[in-house]
What we know:
Elements: H1 19-33, E1 47-52, H2 58-69, E2 73-78, H3 90-100, E3 104-109, H4 114-119, E4 126-131, H5 137-151, E5 158-162, H6 169-180, E6 184-188, E7 203-204, H7 207-210, E8 215-218, H8 234-241, H9 245-248, E9 256-258, H10 271-274, H11 281-300
Parallel strand pairs: 1-2, 1-3, 3-4, 5-6, 5-8, 6-7, 8-9
Amino acid sequence: xxxxxxxxxxxxxxxxxxxxxxxxxxxxxxxxxxxxxxxxxxxxxxxxxxxxxxxxxxxxxxxxxxxxxxxxxxxxxxxxxxxxxxxxxxxxxxxxxxxxxxxxxxxxxxxxxxxxxxxxxxxxxxxxxxxxxxxxxxxxxxxxxxxxxxxxxxxxxxxxxxxxxxxxxxxxxxxxxxxxxxxxxxxxxxxxxxxxxxxxxxxxxxxxxxxxxxxxxxxxxxxxxxxxxxxxxxxxxxxxxxxxxxxxxxxxxxxxxxxxxxxxxxxxxxxxxxxxxxxxxxxxxxxxxxxxxxxxxxxxxx
Length: 302
């Protein structure tokens, strides 16, 4: 199945993407998953730059594996040793790489809104690898891909997203994509970790109700972002909002446990649950490669 043509081959977020286009990407990811033991020469004349201005393990290496499986030439940009340290703007950095002939830019960046500005000033397609608390589109796509593999369809699923909604780009991208694909999304979070602006799209429910969903998605605790609030320690957070072994017993037997990682074991999720039969955490990481292959292919528009 070919990818649905888009007005723009950049992927800055999932908000506004149609179910047809989302399905097209997921279908193409399934195609690439069946070819993961191959390195294809199709894109050997294409140059892709991984521009990570924020730390990353899973996303960065997943993109690099995807790029190399597609046969592309990979340039890894190191912000710490670049001219950014001399005061060069991020826009000028990207424009410099564009001038050298880079075909696609993969960007992770801390400030929200900067990526959109950069995209408006360059002609190469950009793929958002996570920007501030705005979006993380490829993470949500691999989450959807994992759900579809487990359940056959996303439509009709109830998905609970639990944790620091306020600062979570993962929660936002999943919210937009899941709603578009026909799933019901609900949030569960302490008061100081809620995002009121999202409440018109997903209701906040109790932990007990959240555990009755088909998908229980735990988010990384970002206590460092909260100087004041309900909890002052990881232990307190686990007591009230962690997925403990006891709480997991309340889940439906068919339900799955998800987490975008990195996981704080025995904080968001008790250690025995991370690799339990209901957990898809490492499956999600694996699925990230074919999903990102599909997104890169879309960007290259070949």
